[in-house]
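Progress note, sequence design subtask.
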């Protein structure tokens, strides 16, 4: 396996990837069927979102048993076979560790409800009357973070859905339980671990109302977070060179992410942050839409790239995942210029300093779902917000517009394998609707077209392995006067890489780099721009990667 700096991770949402038994739900055998496809793409790790035993209120992020497989997805034998086969093909599996919370169906929580004090201390049960919760904090999925339990006569904390109770990491027994789970999977040969909302696990000692916000400032990157992460990582040997770890960091800061990922700290190899994916939130509100703010996007990327570089931190770089709308629909043109947009966005991410992540379907340029009725939505967050926005008095038509742009279901529609009905995902009825555009956008079509988005991704993955300037180089923004152009330079020893990406639907003339005529075009997403002295023209949504190496 390549070092994580040369690697690329592919994210699989098993429920929507490939259904092998016709029950409409993707499964582990389905993943197995598609390993050759993933090998052709050239990715190194397969991150599988949770397939552990779960009531599925949040599609598996509500875990009932960390060490068993939900029968919806298959059996432990299926998993063993998948680990072995992926390994033979040179791909490691990355598992999703959800340790901020468990499902309320977890044995620990059930024992807590039955009055077992030991297990009550695994969670946060706090005094309060049914109508008077301990604090005014708001859950990430809407409503209070507190739910009153009649059985215990107290409120318990849930930063997400009320069926996802937060674990009390202050309790050393909880941390030992977590280590046991990691060791269990590590012994099975798992080489990658993704930690769900892990920067939220250190809660404050005082519980107070938040007069300024929803409470997140009290528990995000909390007081003992670095100590906890180091303990978990060191005690389970996750700092070993052959293991890849990534922390999902919610509303975090650069300074914390430097600490999370600088090797001296012995925490994670890399982390996700989401600041670049909030540039279309009006006044910071996910449920108020506005066109994305390109200048802000550019600034965020430049700042994160340079600051992490300066302090030896490492980013996981990405546009898409199972919580985000499809990037082609969000940051470009998913109509006439869909393919070009998909390649342009890929160029931006895959040229950066960090480890790139591809979310299933991104490599064929899949688009948003375009659902028109609430009955088509499945996501707990979307269903909650449909009600919340109605209560706020917003018109139904407007709510649908917001959901069409923001719902997490946009990325959860089934993977489009074929042009046929149900997109070759299932022979049954899919648990969530297939995108109508599967006739045009599908894997079969992509593999038949040498110029497809798929082969462009394949090329980008190979370039990272081949050119140290991509995997190791430093990052520097390239200032340009043109609006809507994203540009940066990477440098490593005598090598240099320049990336230009046009986020607009217009031709744009780029001017300025004196040495442009000594540069070779490594890749471009459409007709290669003709460099004329110091100038060249980028097509609408065009992108180009230029390379130069000084001769000794
Ligand atoms: C982040 C996951 O990516 C998301 O899907 C989930 O709902 C929350 N964490 C809660 O586990």
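Output:
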């Amino acid at each position: 396996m390549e070092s994580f700096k040369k690697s690329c991770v592919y994210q699989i949402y098993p429920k929507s990837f490939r259904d092998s038994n016709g029950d409409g739900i993707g499964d582990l055998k389905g993943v197995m069927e598609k390993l050759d496809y993933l090998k052709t793409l050239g990715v190194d790790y397969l991150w599988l979102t949770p397939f552990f035993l779960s009531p599925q209120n949040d599609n598996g992020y509500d875990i009932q048993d960390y060490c068993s497989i939900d029968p919806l997805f298959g059996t432990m034998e299926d998993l063993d076979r998948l680990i072995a086969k992926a390994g033979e093909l040179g791909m490691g599996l990355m598992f999703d560790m959800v340790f901020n919370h468990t499902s309320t169906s977890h044995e620990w929580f059930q024992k807590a409800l039955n009055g077992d004090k030991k297990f009550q201390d695994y969670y946060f049960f706090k005094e309060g009357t049914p109508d008077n919760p301990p604090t005014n904090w708001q859950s990430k999925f809407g409503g209070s973070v507190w739910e009153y339990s009649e059985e215990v006569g107290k409120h318990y904390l849930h930063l997400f859905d009320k069926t996802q109770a937060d674990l009390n990491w202050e309790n050393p027994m909880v941390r030992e339980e977590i280590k046991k789970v990691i060791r269990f999977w590590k012994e099975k040969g798992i080489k990658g671990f993704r930690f769900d909302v892990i920067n939220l696990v250190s809660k404050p000692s005082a519980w107070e109302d938040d007069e300024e916000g929803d409470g997140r400032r009290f528990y995000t990157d909390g007081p003992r977070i670095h100590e906890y992460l180091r303990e978990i990582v060191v005690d389970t040997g996750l700092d070993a060179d052959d293991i890849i770890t990534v922390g999902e960091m919610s509303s975090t800061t650069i300074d914390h992410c430097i600490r999370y990922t600088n090797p001296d700290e012995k925490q994670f190899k890399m982390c996700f942050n989401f600041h670049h994916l909030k540039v279309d939130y009006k006044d910071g509100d996910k449920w108020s839409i506005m066109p994305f703010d390109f200048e802000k996007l550019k600034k965020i990327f430049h700042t994160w790239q340079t600051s992490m570089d300066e302090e030896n931190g490492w980013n996981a770089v990405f546009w898409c995942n199972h919580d985000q709308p499809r990037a082609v629909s969000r940051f470009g043109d998913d109509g006439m210029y869909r393919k070009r947009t998909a390649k342009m966005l890929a160029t931006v991410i895959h040229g950066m300093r960090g480890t790139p992540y591809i979310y299933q379907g991104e490599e064929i340029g899949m688009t948003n779902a375009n659902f028109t009725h609430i009955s088509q939505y499945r996501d707990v967050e979307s269903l909650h917000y449909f009600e919340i926005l109605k209560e706020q008095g917003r018109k139904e038509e407007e709510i649908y517009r917001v959901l069409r742009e923001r719902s997490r279901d946009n990325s959860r529609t089934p993977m489009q394998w074929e042009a046929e009905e149900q997109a070759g995902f299932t022979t049954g009825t899919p648990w969530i609707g297939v995108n109508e555009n599967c006739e045009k956008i599908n894997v079969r079509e992509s593999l038949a077209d040498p110029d497809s988005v798929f082969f462009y991704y394949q090329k980008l993955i190979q370039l990272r392995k081949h050119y140290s300037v991509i995997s190791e180089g430093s990052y520097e923004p390239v200032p340009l006067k043109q609006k809507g152009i994203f540009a940066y330079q990477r440098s490593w020893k005598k090598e240099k890489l320049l990336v230009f990406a046009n986020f607009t639907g217009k031709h744009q003339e780029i001017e300025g780099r004196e040495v442009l005529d000594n540069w070779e075009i490594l890749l471009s997403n459409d007709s290669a721009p003709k460099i004329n002295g110091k100038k060249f023209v980028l097509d609408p949504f065009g992108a180009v990667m230029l390379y130069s190496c000084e001769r000794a």
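The mean pLDDT is 96. Work on this subtask will continue into the next period as scheduled.
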